[in-house]
Design a protein that fits this description.
The protein is of the alpha/beta class. It contains 2 helices and 5 strands, in the order E-H-E-H-E-E-E. 28% of the residues lie in helices and 24% in strands. It starts with a strand and ends in a 14-residue tail after the last strand.
């Protein structure tokens, strides 16, 4: 519709750092092969996994394992809203 490549990675508790690195490497390769195209990458529910450091490097520092990422990659992310879980104590 708007001629932009859009890739999604859905996060969950089972996602490993290796999964994230491999996914971003695939997008990096596509970006390098198509330097005139923007590629939008959406990370969904990032707060459900334990690798926020890697995600921070990718989104905020635009790097992966210390190497700069192509400028035609655009990263976005969503996280679940914070909510208190019931503790089993009933307050009246």
């Amino acid at each position: 519709m708007c001629d932009v490549k859009f890739q999604v990675m859905n996060f969950h508790a089972g996602i490993t750092e290796k999964d994230i690195v491999e996914f971003v490497r695939e997008q990096e390769k596509d970006a390098e092969e198509n330097p005139d195209d923007q590629i939008w990458v959406f990370f969904d529910e990032i707060n459900t996994c334990e690798h926020l450091g890697v995600i921070n490097d990718v989104i905020c520092h635009r790097s992966l394992l210390g190497a700069a990422l192509p400028t035609n990659l655009v990263f976005m992310a969503a996280c679940n809203p914070y909510c208190l879980r019931p503790t089993g104590i009933l307050l009246l």
